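Study this pair:
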Amino acid sequence: MHPAHPTGEHTSGAHAHHHIRALPLRVGTRGSPLALWQTRHFLHLLTTFCPVLRGMNAFAEHAIRTTGDATQAAGTRLADIGGKGLFAKEIHEALADRRIDFAVHSLKDLETQLPDGIVLACTLKREDARDALILGPGCGAIDPTDPLAALPHGAVIGTSSVRRQAQLLHLRPDLRTATIRGNVQTRLDKVRGGEVTASLLAYAGLKRLEIGHEADILLPPDFMVPAAGQGIVGITVRADDIELHELLAGIEDPEAKAVATAERALLDALDGSCRTPIGGHARLEEGGQLHLTGLVARADGGFLLRRDVRGPAADAARIGAALGAELRADAPRDIFA
């Protein structure tokens, strides 16, 4: 006699969802204060949508140290050691190995081509996607008509983002940039302590950590094009986990899904390495029109190309891919090297 499969793997597809799944469901995340906030927010949404999961220890958090986290301390630029996927690699591995059931990511840290068997199953409502300028003690008065006027000539701006660097230097070639990494609080401390004149951070992270007041100047998306996916939290699961797919569909934000789809399709078509400054920002307008802004540049700001396109939100993926292809065709070859 064959032993019974304790996992319920032998059940036919039609009845598979009836077997009792082992709780707690294990949620993978990075260990930073912001990542943990995002994870708890996600679990709050999930238990609100599915109250039966409340109060029964249905979830266990697994903080996973990623290569990106390990190298933060070293002060290396992400671009120089492999880019985006560094904040997700170990999390993907834990998902594939079934050590966790789903994972919570800042969408802008998630590469567009996910490993086989792992899918982006859900995007949560977008927080403010703008970049925030944080001014140090040596900065001038804030001029509402010119967001960069407060930065003195030759100021050193701390950033590890080539996208922010390129747009800054394009507007103000006199500025200099210095690599600055670490979590949100570390970066704020470096600016306040005068290590750099100013820095740029995603406003979404500041708001989520309830320190939105630390933002001195908010840069409109048409002035400083945000990163694709900025301000959006994405949840990955195994492609074959039908049960969790169905659960997550209940909390997906349709607007976030449309704009994320367009921005990620744009990024995918540009296929830049982390060394290529790329910006992508989509928003929904009246009547279901999607407005997408795309940007490619040279890290030194010497070349910058920005385009806008509109189309039906239902065509988000096609719109993003088409704009990406257009920017790629009209930008110098060496930018994507």
